[in-house]
Automatic annotation (TrEMBL):
<keyword id="KW-0067">ATP-binding</keyword>
<dbReference type="InterPro" id="IPR003833">
    <property type="entry name" value="CT_C_D"/>
</dbReference>
<keyword id="KW-0378">Hydrolase</keyword>
<dbReference type="GO" id="GO:0017168">
    <property type="term" value="F:5-oxoprolinase (ATP-hydrolyzing) activity"/>
</dbReference>
<protein>
    <submittedName>
        <fullName>5-oxoprolinase subunit PxpB</fullName>
        <ecNumber>3.5.2.9</ecNumber>
    </submittedName>
</protein>
<dbReference type="InterPro" id="IPR010016">
    <property type="entry name" value="PxpB"/>
</dbReference>
<keyword id="KW-0614">Plasmid</keyword>
<dbReference type="InterPro" id="IPR029000">
    <property type="entry name" value="Cyclophilin-like_dom_sf"/>
</dbReference>
<keyword id="KW-0547">Nucleotide-binding</keyword>
<dbReference type="Pfam" id="PF02682">
    <property type="entry name" value="CT_C_D"/>
</dbReference>
<dbReference type="GO" id="GO:0005524">
    <property type="term" value="F:ATP binding"/>
</dbReference>
<feature type="domain" description="Carboxyltransferase">
    <location>
        <begin position="3"/>
        <end position="203"/>
    </location>
</feature>
């Protein structure tokens, strides 16, 4: 296994497994993440998985880089590529044009109708590779090849919270209003970050997501429930 260690400041280092975005590389990342979480070497603060690397954060007052890296190398010897069994979620999404302002332009540029794009987007079970950019922002793949399109050439200053978007072979839901350059094709009424929940961030690396189309009436009803604090996110867990 070709693994590279790189420094990330005086309290962290990265364990790099490859260069691209693919499931086998990410499986190695998640396997080591799981082993270190279970082993909990002295002085380890946390591990942060990404597409192709794992960041290891440690407390220099309690341990040293040498000791932590030795513990990581020991776990690497036993870390395979076991698939991660994360939670499967069913996320509602409304594809009305006013909620997905890039839907028409994106579908035309791909040689598809809006209906074909929506059907393709909902046809796949997505894998949460990692979280980043902002709390609750999940990088999910892999988008069907027919929907692959680079980011917008002109990012927006404000993307509404809940916007469902695509870029490259990835899709996401913006948990907050923020700048953004992905293509907006719909909106999810369920907050992916809620500070009042015991676990504020809904999705975790290794989870899986299915998008289910809902009409405007259902979208408005779910939005109202979420705004009033009456929506239970556990109802989004899928059994298979």
């Amino acid at each position: 296994m070709n693994v590279r260690f790189t420094t990330a400041g005086d309290t962290a280092f990265n364990v790099e497994f490859g260069e691209g975005i693919d499931r086998p590389t990410n499986a190695r990342v998640m396997a080591l993440h799981a082993r270190l979480k279970a082993a909990a070497p002295p002085g380890l603060v946390e591990t942060v998985p990404t597409f192709r690397s794992l960041q290891v954060v440690y407390d220099p007052a309690a341990t040293s880089r040498r000791e932590v890296q030795a513990a990581v190398e020991a776990e690497l010897a036993h870390a395979g590529e076991a698939p991660v069994e994360g939670t499967l979620w069913r996320l509602p999404v409304c594809y009305d044009p006013d909620l997905g302002p890039d839907l028409a332009e994106l579908s035309a540029s791909l040689g598809l109708t809006a209906e074909q794009l929506i059907a393709l987007h909902g046809s796949t079970e997505y894998f949460v590779y990692m979280l980043g950019f902002m709390p609750g922002f999940a990088y999910m793949g892999d988008l069907p090849a027919e929907l692959e399109k680079p980011r917008r050439s002109e990012p927006r200053v404000r993307v509404p919270a809940g916007s469902v978007a695509t870029a490259g072979r990835l899709t996401t839901v913006y948990p907050w209003e923020s700048p953004g350059g992905w293509h907006l094709i719909g909106r999810c009424p369920v907050p992916l970050y809620d500070g009042s929940r015991p676990s504020p961030v809904l999705l975790a690396a290794g989870d899986r997501v299915r998008f289910e189309a809902v009409d405007r009436t259902r979208f408005d009803a779910l939005s109202a429930e979420a705004a009033a604090g009456r929506f239970d996110p556990d109802t989004l867990r899928a059994t298979s």
